[in-house]
Amino acid sequence: MTTPQRRVPLLDLGAQHAPIRDEILAELIPLIDSQRFIMGPDVGELECKIAGYSQSKYAVACASGSDALLLAWMALELGPGDKVITTPYSFFATAGSLARIGVEPVFVDIDPVTFNIDPNQVEDALKRHTGVWAIQPVHLFGACADMDPLLALGQRYGAVVVEDAAQAIGAEYKGRRCGAIGAMGCFSFYPGKNLGAYGDGGIVTTNDPTLAELLARLRLHGGHEKYYHEFVGINSRLDTIQATVLKVKLRHLDAWTAKRQQNAATYMRLFAKTEAPVVLPVIAPYQTRHVFNQFTILCPRRDELKAHLTANGIGCEIYYPLPLHLQQCFEELGYKAGDLPVSESVSQGALSLPVYPELTEEDQQYVVDAIDAFYRAK
Ligand SMILES: Cc1ncc(COP(=O)(O)O)c(C=O)c1O
Questions:
Q1: 200: CA distance to ligand 1 center in Å?
Q2: Whether the CB of 65 sits within 6 Å of ligand 1
Q3: Which pLDDT band holds residue 2 (cuts at 50, 70, 90)?
Q4: Dist. CA 365 → ligand 1 center (Å)
Q5: What is the mean pLDDT of the chain?
Q6: How many domains, the chain?
Q7: Residue 56 lies in a domain
Q8: For residue 6, is it within any domain?
């Protein structure tokens, strides 16, 4: 194999870090000097800022996006015997957070264009199942699921809507920020997210003061006053160090998002000049702000193309190779291949390309040329 001329990683956190290094250190050093690592003042400050950013009244920080989901289900007091309708085309935590507390995920298929949960399939599932207390859309890759029909169905069938917004901070649905369109919104600060910590982190947003209070206690072992516990929660605090880093990075998030959107538009323009048989992302009219956590194409001979890009120094990833309903750990739920055909076929064809803010047009041209050359060769 010849050495690739260029390297374009899937994500370049070093390039993001370099220009903000001094700004971050200026805030971290006083924190380290103060030694207030647990529930320090920056945690509360970050919660206020994220609540404002996501147009919600409250935000409760926690240790990860997975815990944000777990805390949301715990706040709704869901447990064995209860069901939640969700998408099988997502990161594992979407369903794992439910199964972890004995709740059954009911998987329904996705829309073939947006890859988000299909509201028509949700209605069918609500008719077929009893014990469904919530609907969990995932705003996949940074674009909102179609919330209005989901909210209407939730009202009609007595189910709350909880948004898995892990990949979508700042995304908008009909001009409204995700996170408090449903009863709660769960975000991840995993480093690869648009707003990434220096480790794990998450937050739950809500407009409901009772849920906010419950979430705040649940993340501290259910306690209110230290060493007095009215119910059992978990230990899921956000480290102050992460809150400090996130507070600084939040100042840059809109500029980074604008760059991601610009990069997506550049891909559209560059691919339009080729005959590569790939399906590009489509933005639905209600997805008024797509934040492009991923730029995901559908492509024939996907695994071969991935190998070709890797050999040419281009980072790319398959999100997600096996839909959740076919995961071994959910075997006992009884799904089989063919049950959710759209999710299954998208899993076979999806490939995410670099779209991070620091990417240059030359990098993107290199990616598109490599894809074009692959399809021209055979
Ligand atoms: C859709 C979705 N849900 C939940 C999570 C879980 O977040 P975390 O990795 O912070 O636990 C992620 C993050 O990877 C995600 O992409």
A1: 10
A2: yes
A3: low
A4: 30
A5: 97
A6: 2
A7: yes
A8: no
Classify residue 260: in a domain, yes or no.
yes
pLDDT at 230: 87
pLDDT(4) > 90: no
**Residue 50 alpha carbon to ligand 1 centre in Å:** 17
Domain termination residue (choose one: 225, 247, 269): 247
Q: Is the CB of 123 under 6 A from ligand 1?
A: no
CB 223 within 8 A of CB 204: no
Residue 292 has pLDDT above 60, yes or no: yes
Question: Same structural domain for residues 167 and 305?
Answer: no
Does ligand 1 come within 6 angstroms of the Cβ of 293?
Answer: no
**pTM metric for this prediction:** 0.97
DSSP characters for 107-151?
E-PBPTTT-SB-HHHHHHHHHH-S-EEEEE-B-GGG----HHHHH
Ligand 1 neighbourhood includes 166 CB (under 6 angstroms): yes
Tens digits of residue pLDDT in 57-83: 999 999 999 999 999 999 999 999 999
